TrEMBL record:
<dbReference type="InterPro" id="IPR004839">
    <property type="entry name" value="Aminotransferase_I/II_large"/>
</dbReference>
<comment type="similarity">
    <text>Belongs to the class-I pyridoxal-phosphate-dependent aminotransferase family.</text>
</comment>
<dbReference type="InterPro" id="IPR015422">
    <property type="entry name" value="PyrdxlP-dep_Trfase_small"/>
</dbReference>
<dbReference type="InterPro" id="IPR015421">
    <property type="entry name" value="PyrdxlP-dep_Trfase_major"/>
</dbReference>
<feature type="domain" description="Aminotransferase class I/classII large">
    <location>
        <begin position="26"/>
        <end position="375"/>
    </location>
</feature>
<keyword id="KW-0808">Transferase</keyword>
<dbReference type="InterPro" id="IPR051326">
    <property type="entry name" value="Kynurenine-oxoglutarate_AT"/>
</dbReference>
<protein>
    <submittedName>
        <fullName>Aminotransferase class I/II-fold pyridoxal phosphate-dependent enzyme</fullName>
    </submittedName>
</protein>
<keyword id="KW-0663">Pyridoxal phosphate</keyword>
<dbReference type="InterPro" id="IPR015424">
    <property type="entry name" value="PyrdxlP-dep_Trfase"/>
</dbReference>
<dbReference type="Pfam" id="PF00155">
    <property type="entry name" value="Aminotran_1_2"/>
</dbReference>
<keyword id="KW-0032">Aminotransferase</keyword>
<dbReference type="GO" id="GO:0005737">
    <property type="term" value="C:cytoplasm"/>
</dbReference>
<dbReference type="GO" id="GO:0016212">
    <property type="term" value="F:kynurenine-oxoglutarate transaminase activity"/>
</dbReference>
<dbReference type="GO" id="GO:0030170">
    <property type="term" value="F:pyridoxal phosphate binding"/>
</dbReference>
Length: 379
């Protein structure tokens, strides 16, 4: 049969993790921790299962969890949200992003995407019948070129997708960025799909700026969050979307026919954990900044160029002083020959701009990071 997504194959994350396993390499490619989640959270999940929280939850999420999430948004973002009409629990932020696009984008609509961009955005746009309009972030700084954005907007523009902190580059949107986005979104009546899954992972005292904190964006945005990133439980595949009541209602129409509900005992466990440890997410920036600094400091004597990541748990390394090979060639070569796996960032572009960066995940035990850095310093 003719494929609806002819250009889509196995994701780079799956391929590089499989290659790392095949070669016995240190896996700094796929973004997941190699350390355990908080013991209290794991115990809460076991308790939820044993206490019988194993049947369907309400389609929009357990009320107890949505209430805790409303408290979290007030605590960390200073934003008041109605847990009944504005918060939807979903089986992972990827599903939430898919549902927000499918609910909003019609045939012929244009959706602006900033490259390098996470690989789930474009397929969702195409399956909705929309057209992805791709705008490259500025080379090396990976800042948004707002002049290019403004020049691209037209009456067919329906939505803009933003991602901050940004995967794969670690860039973080500034206050000026958010005000410019707000002005353009109002002027062109744009919806905003905001991928904020790394919201708690910003460093060097940089704040995370959510679309929910800007009145002009609040009413027209889908904001997506991930428990997997916050609690080091990527395999639990649970997150949530916050949007104004009218937008939430449309998202839920799609969500109920894609997954219907997120996993009930996971929802109960997260609700119980947040009730007991509401300040836990605020600890993450310091925890991960120490790991970032350990990894970067260990590479100080290497031949890589680097700018410490501003957010996420990814660090880009510029290898332009080492090799002229493409990043995909080098990522595979170094996984096989050196035993360290990374992600080439060219795969996040439709037409790679010839940058020489590899992405490394530092959500790993200190000994793992030190061992990987020692190998990389030997290049």
């Amino acid at each position: 049969m003719d494929s609806k997504l002819p250009g889509i194959g196995t994701t780079i994350f799956t391929r590089m993790s499989a290659l790392a396993a095949e070669c016995g390499a240190i896996n700094l490619s796929q973004g997941y921790p190699d350390f355990e989640a908080p013991e209290e959270l794991r115990e809460a999940l076991a308790r939820a299962v044993m206490d019988g929280h194993n049947q369907y939850a309400p389609m929009s999420g357990l009320p107890a969890l949505r209430e805790q999430l409303a408290l979290q948004l007030q605590l960390h973002r200073g934003v008041a949200c109605d847990p009944e009409t504005e918060i939807t629990v979903v089986p992972g932020a990827t599903e939430g992003i898919f549902c927000s696009i499918m609910a909003s984008v019609r045939a012929g609509d244009e959706v602006l995407v900033m490259d390098p961009s996470y690989d789930s955005y474009i397929p969702a746009i195409e399956m909705a019948g929309g057209k992805a309009v791709r705008i490259a972030l500025r080379a090396h700084s990976f800042a948004v070129d707002w002049d290019a954005v403004a020049a691209t907007l037209n009456p067919r523009s329906r939505m803009i997708i933003i991602n901050s902190p940004h995967n794969p580059t670690g860039a973080v949107l500034s206050e000026d960025d958010m005000h410019t986005l707000e002005r353009l979104a109002i002027e062109y009546d744009l919806l905003v799909c905001s991928d904020e899954v790394y919201e708690h992972l910003t460093y060097d005292d940089l704040p995370h700026r959510s679309v929910l904190q800007y009145p002009g964006l609040r009413e027209r945005s889908f904001a997506h969050f991930s428990f997997g990133k916050t609690f080091s439980v990527t395999g639990w595949k649970t997150g949530y979307c916050v949007a104004a009541p009218a937008l939430s209602a449309e998202l839920r129409k799609v969500h109920q026919f894609v997954a219907f509900v997120a996993v009930t005992p996971v929802q109960q466990a997260v609700a119980d954990f947040l009730a007991d440890y509401p300040e836990y997410p605020a600890r993450l920036a310091g925890f991960y900044q120490r790991k970032r600094d350990l990894f970067c400091d260990a590479l100080a004597g290497s031949n890589f160029r680097l700018r410490p990541s501003a957010g996420t748990y990814f660090q880009l390394l510029d290898y332009s002083d080492i090799s002229t090979a493409t990043d995909q060639q080098l990522a595979e070569q170094w996984t096989r020959e050196l035993g360290v796996a990374s992600i080439p960032i060219s795969v996040f572009y439709p037409s790679p701009p010839g940058l020489h960066y590899l992405r490394f995940c530092f959500a790993k035990n200190d000994a793992t990071l030190e061992q990987a850095a020692e190998i990389l310093c030997g290049i």
